[in-house]
Amino acid sequence: MPRYRVPASTTNLGHGFDCLGMALALFNTIDVEPLAGDAIETPESRDAGLSAMVARVRDECARRWNVPVPGLSVRVTGDIPIARGLGSSASIIIGVAAACRDLVGLPQDQGELIRIGAAIEGHPDNVAAAVLGGFTIVGQVGDDLRWMRFDPPADLTCVLVIPPFEVKTSEARKILPDQVAKRDLVTAIQRTALIVAALARGRAEDLRGLLADAWHERYREQVNAAVAPVRAAAERAGTIGTIISGSGSTVLSFVVRGHAEKTVGALRASGVGDVRLVEATATGVAAQR
Question: Both 115 and 177 in a single domain?
Fold first, then answer.
């Protein structure tokens, strides 16, 4: 029976909309059993959306590989909260796709998992981080995706504030404009280049001042009441910078390791949500025995 452990992911990292991601040391475990016929079962979940997601993954795998994929019984356990901007759906998609690959006897191919995940999610940033681990950059080049991966800086850690409300990715995308002002586009390009350089070189402190004022966060703050108070508390605590994780609702502050406990205390005092100290992880999707 295939079993896969898949990390959470935070994406955008401020200005890198739909292209930057980082794997986090929160994990879901995906257990998959083959079934006769084409049935889909999720016996420990009452969420009809999970069954629909599993069916989409199975069908996309069968289409891409031109092979029959059996019915599936899927169990999801773990630590990644749902609809909080931490890649819960990406973890499930990647775990199920990896299991389908095993069930039909195909060789391991990280690229195929990323492509399948991006086709289902509609954006590649979470799935790239979930597959590869570490800090990832991914983008469309012609008809395909291209990606790069780096280990996260050794002295970088994350403090998450997870509010008691959900933000659906589909809803968070609907509020974004179809066009972006030239000045916002230039800022996004400049800051994204600098963020990539800082992370690729392993220099966490060089992120300071680069993460604020992302164009998409100005719109997403309107549906996420946690952002303003968390950002204010994080700034007073001296963090490197604070972002909306993915589409939210989680708000994430980057800190150097020696400053983490002070930040945790400050953000808990804000009373906005569940505060967790979480490491970035170099580990992507992995088979479990």
Answer: no
